[in-house]
Design goal:
alpha+beta; 2,3-Dihydroxybiphenyl 1,2-Dioxygenase, domain 1; 18% helix; Glyas_Fos-R_dOase_dom
């Protein structure tokens, strides 16, 4: 049993069209799946990733049109990192963000890596992280049809940043239950890694007891998922998590992967997700995300689902 790294991060948007425009046209990520929230079919669920939708590269969004403002604080996944090839790529992004008027901070070094923090139009807190010094989990492959040059493109998820009032309960789950290793601290941030380590396998836990509890809304993160090999291993994790006394979802079939959900003591939602079968299960790899994809158990409701969604054109004109 081994957590391999970050699988995906799921966040909230209030406007799927504007979200799609920003993440594909400005960030140059590939939409690899346009589907619906399986627990509430009235909302889109959009998956952005590398060229193939590889595990460890997915940033996903639930559309909740009436989502209010996020008031940041503790008990939260407060920043999501996106990997780029090297320091030179960050210089490209600094200029690109200036061009598109993206709210950004100066490039700075954190844990021997150059980083560039920025916000999307809804205030989603994001950081580009250079893989120039990475020696851990390999990245994905940036999309070669992106408006961003492939050598500067986003190729995966980097460290996930949690903010809590008390680190001990979260650290206990990461280490004692999930098998992460504590590898260091910087300021008020504790760094944990798993599997091969490196940029794609870290969780950073910031301790700030003076902050209020976060009130999530548009621009907030819903959950983080960690990678497990397959369904057989996921079943073992279910036994371990239940044995530790944590209520959990049991195995959930998301069709593109199998999942298990539970909340750690600081109320942050963790998911364990299998690497496969993947997003090409029901679509040709060259045409991922171009039409509304529904898993077989929702296909009989397609007409109803489509009638309740605001049309969203995601066709790739280059194909």
């Amino acid at each position: 049993m081994n957590i391999k790294g970050i699988h995906h991060v799921s966040a909230i948007t209030a406007n799927a069209k504007k979200n799609y425009d920003f993440y594909t046209n400005v960030l140059g990520m590939r939409l690899v799946k346009k589907t619906v929230n399986q627990d509430d079919n009235s909302m889109y669920h959009l998956f952005y990733a590398d060229e193939k939708g590889s595990p460890g590269t997915d940033l996903t969004f639930f559309e909740i049109p009436r989502a209010g403002t996020t008031y940041s604080g503790t008990h939260s996944i407060s920043t999501t990192s996106l990997r780029v090839k090297d320091d030179r790529a960050l210089e490209y992004w600094k200029e690109r963000f200036d061009q598109f008027g993206v709210d950004q901070d100066p490039i700075k070094e954190v844990l021997n890596r150059k980083t560039l923090s920025f916000r999307d139009p809804e205030g989603q807190r994001l950081t580009l992280v250079s893989d120039g010094n990475n020696e851990g989990v390999a990245p994905g492959v940036a999309w070669d049809q992106s408006p961003v040059p492939q050598q500067a493109g986003i190729n995966g998820l980097g460290p996930v940043h949690l903010t809590v009032a008390d680190a001990a309960p979260t650290a206990n789950v990461l280490i004692d239950i999930l098998g992460f290793r504590k590898v260091g601290t910087i300021d008020n941030r504790i760094v944990f890694e798993t599997g091969e380590g490196g940029t794609g396998a870290e969780v950073h836990v910031e301790v700030n007891p003076e902050l209020p509890r976060e009130r999530p809304g548009r621009g907030s993160v819903h959950h983080v998922a960690f990678r497990v090999e397959d369904e057989a291993e996921l079943a073992k994790w279910e036994d371990k998590i239940r044995g530790a006394g944590f209520p959990n979802s049991g195995l959930v079939d998301r069709f593109y992967f199998k999942s298990l959900y539970f909340r750690e003591p600081n109320h942050i939602l963790f998911e364990l997700a299998t690497d496969g079968p993947g997003f090409a299960t029901d679509e040709d790899e060259n045409h991922l995300g171009e039409s509304l994809a529904l898993p077989p158990f929702l296909e009989h409701k397609r007409q109803q689902i489509e009638s309740e969604l605001v049309p969203l054109d995601t066709s790739n004109k280059q194909n």
